[in-house]
Amino acid sequence: MARDDTVLVLGATGGIGGEVARQLRDAGWQVRALKRGAVEGREDGITWLAGDAMDPQAVMKAAEGCAVIVHAVNPPGYRGWAQLVLPMLDNTIAAAKAEGATLVLPGTVYNFGPDAFPLLTEDSPQHPVTRKGAIRVEMERRLEEASRGGTRVLIVRAGDFFGPRPGNNWFSQGLVKAGRPVKAVSDLGRPGLGHQWSYLPDVARAMVELLARRDRLEPFARFHMAGHWDADGTRMSGAIRQVVARRTGAVPRVSAFPWWLLTWASPFVTTFREMREMRYLWQTPVQMDNAKLVAFLGREPHTPLDEAVEAALDGMGSLGAAPAAVAA
Q1: Torsion of CA 317, 161, 173, 52, to 10 degrees
Q2: How many Å apart are CA 126 and CA 297, to the nearest integer?
Q3: What is the DSSP string of 11-68?
Q4: How far is CA 84 from the centre of its chain?
Q5: Quick one: pLDDT band at residue 327, thresholds 50, 70, 90?
Q6: What letter would DSSP give residue 225?
Q7: What's this model's pTM, rounded to 2 decimal places?
Q8: pLDDT tens-digit series, residues 88-102
Q9: Where do the coiled-coil regions begin and end (predicted)?
Q10: Homologous superfamily of 3-166+196-230+284-302
């Protein structure tokens, strides 16, 4: 029998999965996390279970008695999307259906194409232009189908992630390099082009607050977050430079991102090839309309940009000192 305060998080070692797991724990939930090769037991208030999201029996067993399953697992380094992403989701859907659990998915803008730009609502048409975008569309289609069969679904879409724990994101792999002093900030987009960023703890907070009101959600609920809008492409790099200058005394330079290097290395490096495929999102402004989220919650969780950037750089070890503790 499912307990209303028990949740399984798949992908709890990743950026958004980890943030959601910790914030649910702090909100009083009993949190389980599934991880390959994990030493089973309780650590930092989270119960870790050994298992693979590709193993349907492992997911089913881990989900026993859970009221919510957070599906935040992704292949590392963008590798194996075509072979792994949909089977993992199918396993989660089956477990959610068996337990009567609400299934939560962190969403992206990948599943939208130019016909929906520049302002995206929850109901904007989904005509992607990339392979990962097509997979995202299929993921949401399967979730919507599951919702018609009685499984409640919550999708929270947000812009490019950044936060205190580095992962597969443009902030820690493109703008700066995690674990290294910030001597330069890469300019990824065209001059004057807007871009949307989402601070991971804010996204996690929105999910936690939505789950606290899940009895009022529609069966297939989708919400967009506005995050931090960088209107001309200089706000984020400017915030990074200010934080680094204040903390270290050095002002990083801004240089163009070497897209040519990704093009050259794409045939040999899977991560570079997958990053290059998403370049179109740096060549056109894409912004999310958060009106539905604000109407439902009364506000969007929002950390000031300078605080968010400093926490992110601290957590990445990029300010010349040991990573700072970051509160949820």
Answers
A1: 90
A2: 25
A3: TTTSHHHHHHHHHHHHTT-EEEEEETT---EEETTEEEEE--TT-HHHHHHHTTTEEE
A4: 18
A5: very low
A6: -
A7: 0.92
A8: 999 999 999 999 999
A9: none
A10: NAD(P)-binding Rossmann-like Domain (3.40.50.720)
